[in-house]
Amino acid sequence: MRTPLLFTLATTTLLTLSAHAKDPALGATTFTVYEAFLSPAQEPGEESETPKLLEKSLGATAPSTPREARKSRGHGVLKFSKDLTRAYVEFEMKGVNPADILMFHIHCGPPGVLGPVVVDFGELGNLSKTLAEGRLTVELTHANVVFIKDMKGMKPGLPESCPAELGFLAQTKTLASLESLARKGVLYFNLHTKAHTYYGEMRGQLYPAEP
After folding, report:
1. In this prediction, what percent of the chain has a pLDDT beyond 90?
2. Using one digit for the tens of pLDDT, what is the confidence trace for 11-31?
3. Which domain range does residue 78 map to?
4. What is the pTM of this model?
5. What burial letters (b/e) apply to 110-131, b meaning 16+ CB within 10 Å?
């Protein structure tokens, strides 16, 4: 009985593929890496366009500067161990006075859209001191993925965390779901200062890091 040619080809292809399992320890020592280059140009609006109802609550204490005139720049890296048990952030900025920093977050939202806070670096302590040298290095845990019952200044009643999947009510509470959002390109860094409290001083959308 003749063996069909297609079956023979398929069998040969399968035999040439590597099928052995990898060392499980590699899950903690190899990483999936995302990066963002922050700039004022990525902010979706000028600070002068802050909704009137929010101006007092945000409490800007310095005059704003148009996006094109700001010199602030930054680079941030968000990397996850392949087993999704650990995540790390490395950040460096230039053109920003650390004493002016009010907030620093990772938000969820596509380019040009304001989104809710997913990671609040203010929980680490005084940001002016933390970023005094213009750099930040921190390990993230599940506890750093925030879940707040009400959106602040946006649509009341919605949870302040991204849905794990569009259309589902499940919220982002784990590093695994945070990595899933990074893979979809809907996470961004946003640094807020005394002059730019609503939209932010500079923003950077996270994408897979270049090799």
Report:
1. 56
2. 555 555 566 888 999 999 999
3. 27-208
4. 0.82
5. eeeebbbbbbbbeeeeebeebb
